[in-house]
Amino acid sequence: KAGRLVIAASQTVGSYWLPMRLLAFQAVHPGIEIHVRIANSEQVATDVRDGMADVGFVEGDIDDAALSARRVDGDALVAVVGARHPLASQKKLPSDWMTRTPWILREPGSGTRAMFERALKKRGVRLADLTVQLELASNEAIRTAIEAGGCAAAISDLVVEKAIKAKQLVQLEDELAKRSFYALRHKERHISKAEAALMSSIAAGAAP
Length: 208
Hints:
Shape: elongated
Mean pLDDT: 93
Number of strands: 8
Oligomer: single chain
Low-confidence stretches: none
Strand order of the largest sheet: 2-1-3-8-4-7
Number of helices: 7
CATH topology of the largest domain: D-Maltodextrin-Binding Protein, domain 2
Order of helices and strands: EHEHEEHEHEHEHEH
Radius of gyration: 18 Å
Structural class: alpha/beta
Largest sheet: 6 strands, mixed
CATH class of the largest domain: Alpha Beta
CATH architecture of the largest domain: 3-Layer(aba) Sandwich
Number of domains: 2
Distance between the termini: 21 Å
């Protein structure tokens, strides 16, 4: 009925997936105080490992022997450009389109950046082959920059879904990759009743 939870979440999860689930949880457990820290995936793992957070939520895999990871959901990584970008109106993209347009990417250490690099590798493309115009630590900053400029971005479909429907952005090709969202916790720390209740709520798919 009462308690306190400190949650660390990566940007995509913390901004687009987690909020409505926390609201649903607090509607049932109003006495539990929740604090959320948003950072990139590597920092979230560090916060959980160092005891700065009770539980973390990230997109993509985290390789840390001290942490357990439990899949809770997922999204897709998509490549998008603004409506005025030259590629936006092309019905068939050239095979080398990735290396012909500049990119705006998330910073190293983010789950989105790591996923994009893996997707490139599967296509036989290196990150060094791309022209990286900017690196930004905010999904919203990237979305805004892409809408206004002549660059492409690789970003979660959760971030750009509304902008694509509004025709402010255009998705190029099918999804680049699918990825999972994971809940992280320290293997050796006690699970509080508040944390157990939160995880139960998320497992049940409790969202408005």
